[in-house]
Specification:
By secondary structure, the protein is mostly helical. It contains four helices and no strands. The chain has one domain. 70% of the residues lie in helices and 0% in strands. The relative contact order is 0.17.
């Protein structure tokens, strides 16, 4: 398991999914500017961060460290 690669993929996949599902609102179409709420990085970034965090939680469970503390 490569946590770095897995979390990068979870983040990137989420961004790609958002762009592809909302393409016409994400980019300029017919000379118009897309929908700011859709292309604003704070919008899709929040979704991507959530996807990455979910992958970290899944990895912690798979590796047996979920819910444990180092203190």
């Amino acid at each position: 398991m490569n946590i770095d690669t897995d979390t990068q993929y979870a983040f990137s996949r989420s961004v790609a999914d958002t762009v592809l599902k909302n393409y016409d609102r994400f980019v300029k179409v017919d000379g118009e500017v897309g929908d700011k709420k859709t292309y604003d990085p704070r919008s899709w970034g929040k979704i991507a961060e959530t996807a990455m965090a979910a992958r970290v939680v899944e990895a912690a469970r798979q590796l047996g460290s979920y819910g444990k503390s180092v203190v």
